[in-house]
Amino acid sequence: MMAAAKTPAGLRGSLRHDEPMSRHTSWRVGGPADRYYEPADLADLVDFLRTLPAAEPLTWVGLGSNLLVRDGGVRGTVICASGRLKALSLLGAGRVRAEAGVAGAKLARYCANQSLRGAEFFAGIPGTVGGALAMNAGAFGGETWAVVAAVEAIDRRGEIRVRPRGDFRVGYRSVQGPEGEWFVAGHFALEAGASGDGKSLIKSLLAKRSATQPTQLPNAGSVFRNPPGDHAARLIEATGLKGLCEGRACVSPLHANFIVNEGGARAADIERLIGIVRDRVLAAQGVALEPEVRIIGEAS
């Protein structure tokens, strides 16, 4: 059960003990976090990090999409950026600064309203800027780091650095950079265009997403990465796994690369189903699918 905690003096955020992560993941599963902090803003986050012991385990979450938290929960401190690190601003010359807690759809709409093109695909990413930066998230043919000019990263001492794109090695759904730092904002380089064009494209992309993805049931987006030259959904469907269930976790009949929570699923059900799908596709198709979702925490 969630337990309130006294926030350290001088901090403006919210600190809770034993916070159920099922409340903060798009799959609606997950055990408790030892400590769960929602900073008031970036300055408050800096102050909070400076209160933590050097060895304290840290886990960062946004909207909790692309994330499976095991039923035993998460040790240490979870920091939630969603709805907290939410600043959006123009930097000039087609540049937009978005903090880590800004939802992808909100970034897409903001850019369109500023008559900037190139960020429309973010409307199809069911997460935040921080997560998109961390995994080079993509949708509808666009990828996050294709429009990144620079990022702001923070370390556990609360020091923020602005780093150019060249400080990172970027690949398909992967980003490697300096260790011990986390993204708190991205600077995006976009092209001038007509706001109406951007808004129209966003509308069509969202309609496509609703028609092809199980948006009405709890899910975490695409479960597996697409292998080179193929699509995970095609391989899963070709193996006859649409509708396969483990407990209340099921492979979506609408989109084979989505696992949905039919109501009452546990994280263990989802993790077992991921393993079953991977094993059966390997046996039938000879392709080893790699999970795109991040699995964290302890088993119950």
Q: Main attributes?
A:
Uridine Diphospho-n-acetylenolpyruvylglucosamine Reductase, domain 2; single chain; 23% helix; alpha+beta; Uridine Diphospho-n-acetylenolpyruvylglucosamine Reductase, domain 1; 5-stranded antiparallel beta sheet; 3 domains; Uridine Diphospho-n-acetylenolpyruvylglucosamine Reductase, domain 3; 300 residues; 5-stranded mixed beta sheet
- What structural class results from the helix and strand content? alpha+beta
Number of domains: 3
Helix content, binned percent: 10-25%
Q: How far is the first residue's CA from the last residue's CA?
A: 15 Å
Order of helices and strands: EEEHEEEEEHEHEEEEEEEEHHEEEHE
User: Roughly how many Å is the radius of gyration?
Assistant: 19 Å
CATH topology of the largest domain: Uridine Diphospho-n-acetylenolpyruvylglucosamine Reductase, domain 3
Largest sheet, order of strands side by side?
1-2-3-6-4
Highest CATH level, the class of the largest domain: Alpha Beta
Number of strands: 21
Oligomer: single chain
- What spatial form do the alpha-carbon principal axes imply? globular
CATH architecture of the largest domain: 2-Layer Sandwich
Number of helices: 6
Low-confidence stretches: none
Largest sheet: 5 strands, mixed
